[in-house]
Each structure stands twice: as structure tokens, then as C-alpha cells.
Amino acid sequence: MSADPNWTTLVDAAVLAAALQHPQLRLLDARAAPPTAPDPHAARKAYAQGHLPGAYYADLDQDLAALSRPAQGRHPLPHSAAFAKRLGEWGIDPHTQVVVYDAADGSMAAARAWWMLRLMGHGRVAVLDGGLAAWRAAGFAESTESPAVRDGAAYPGSFDTAEVVDAEQIVQRLQQAPGWLLDARAGERFRGEVEPIDPVAGHVPGAVNRPLGLNLRDGRFKPAAELRAELSALLGAYRPEQAVVMCGSGVTACHLLLALEVAGLSGARVYAGSWSGWLQDASRPVATCA
To answer: Boundaries of each Rhodanese domain copy (predicted)?
Structure first.
């Protein structure tokens, strides 16, 4: 290549394919089974059956979360040191261009990995727009070979905890006008009509619903100008850096954060515990649209 890639939000399949042999490129396959899937290992099995050449498998539960910390929700962040070690094993250093993908739209769980790398201070990370589905539709090659884990040094960084919102920070803002807290869950879950995963249905009072599917058209992110118009309307008088995004467990919220970034509305933060973390304290209020 004539220049090093520098992708920070999305990358098209054709552009990625042209750069596949770049020595500073690392690919992460972040496919994850939905929480209600009958086989929780289905995504890892699918990776073994075919993935982008050279891609490492980033396991949502083992690499992108620490399930031993349930008080912080269903997918708490792992410790920085553990994630830094894993990045080193994947051959990622501060000069690496990372591209993350999942099965299709980035919600399970490519955007989560994208966000976590950014939390570590790594700017050169992007999500493959359209995911593996777009790669396959273009007819590009796949592999069944898993790259060897490397013995390189741990990534020299740690999570910027100022970019992660906790429940107490949400509680302190409950009296503010709606628009600052955006919830990426499906409408029926947000409204409290159904709850297939968590013990209580509903949403944080004052939150505004933005189902992640609204960020997409035909499995890919909408154009930046369109996203900007839609998301600016939701934020209203709030600046992007005043906004917080959430979902059920801090995974699909990152898809909404990515949409904001694509739209040029940078600065929002993630409530990592999200709805599952909110419910850990029964005294916290719950709203429904019933």
C-alpha cells in the first residue's frame, strides 16, 4: 500500500480487502450469540467454519467482558490489565490499524470491541460496515485457519474511566429534561411490553429510545448526514458530549455510540452497566410506556 490505513469509524469491505496484506493491520472477529440463543457457543463455532483471513476471535464473554462482576450488569468491562494483555496476544500495539467485524451490522459485538479499544486510547480502530455478510456478498476470501496467539508485550494503556458512566451518575441526572440518555434496545423492551433477558421490563425514567436498527439501511450504517439529522433531533438542546448511551448490558449501546461518531457528533459516553446494571438496586426507579 502507498500509505498506512487510518480508519477510525467504518471501513468498506472493498477498501479492507485491498489492504489485507498490510503488516500493521489486525482483524478481530467479534461475532457473538444473542443472549437468548440456544447455543451460547454458536458464534465461536461459526468463526471456526470461516472468517476473514488472519482474524483473531474476540469472545464477548471472555475477552470483552468480565462475567465474574455481575453487580455491574451482564457484561461488565474486564480489568484494563487483562484486556491489555489480550491485545498484545493479538499483536496489537499503538501503531496497529485494527478492524473489527461481526456477522452483519456491528451490534454483536464489533462496536463493543471498537469502543473498548478507544477506551484504551487506541484511535486507529474501525468496524467493517456490513460485517461478514458484506464481505461474503462481495465474494472475498475466507479462511478456517486461526492465527497463533503472540507473545508480544501487553498493550501500553488502560481504560479511560472518565468515558464510562456508572449508575450513580445516571441517578444524579434523572431530573434533567429528556434527550441526554439514549437507549438502544428494541422498542418493545424499552416500553416495558416484553423482557426476554432481564428480570424487570421498562427503562430508566427520562431515557429516549433509539433502537439500533434505525442506524442502518440494508445492513449498513446510514450516510453521515442522515444520521446527524436524526440523532441531533433526539439530543435536542444537549451537546453530544453531554449525552450517554445505554442498552441492556453495554454492548449494543456501543453501536449507537458508533453511529454518533459517524454522524460527527463526538463525545457521548457509555453507561456500561446499562439496564441490567440499573436493576441491581431495587430502589432505582423504573418507567414503562404502558
So the answer is: 21-144, 175-287
Domains of the chain, CATH where assigned: 10-159 (3.40.250.10), 162-278 (3.40.250.10)
Helix (H) or strand (E) holding 244: strand 244-246
d(CA 204, CA 174): 8
Identify whether 247 is a catalytic site residue.
yes
Alpha-carbon gap, residue 127 to 129, rounded angstroms:
6
**Is cis: bond before 138, omega within 30 of 0?**
no
| Residues 114-170: tens digit of each pLDDT | 999 999 999 999 999 999 999 999 999 999 999 999 988 999 999 999 999 999 999
Would you say residue 1 has pLDDT above 50?
no
Enclosing H/E stretch for 261? helix 253-262
| CA–CA dist 116, 130 (Å, integer) | 20
In eight-state DSSP terms, residue 51 is B
pLDDT at 290: 65
Q: Are 243 and 180 in contact (CB under 8 A)?
A: yes
244-246 and 181-183: which strand pairing?
parallel
Residue whose C-alpha cell is 449508575: 167
Place of cell 446510514: 222
Strands (E), 116-219: 125-128, 164-165, 181-183, 208-209, 216-217
Q: From 4, 172, 28, select the one nearest 100 (Cα to Cα).
A: 28
Name the active-site residue from 110, 182, 234, 247.
Answer: 247
- Write out the H or E segment, with its range, that includes residue 101: strand 97-101
Nearest to 253 by CA among 219, 212, 214: 212
Dihedral angle of Cα 69, 125, 230, 191, to the nearest 10 degrees: -20
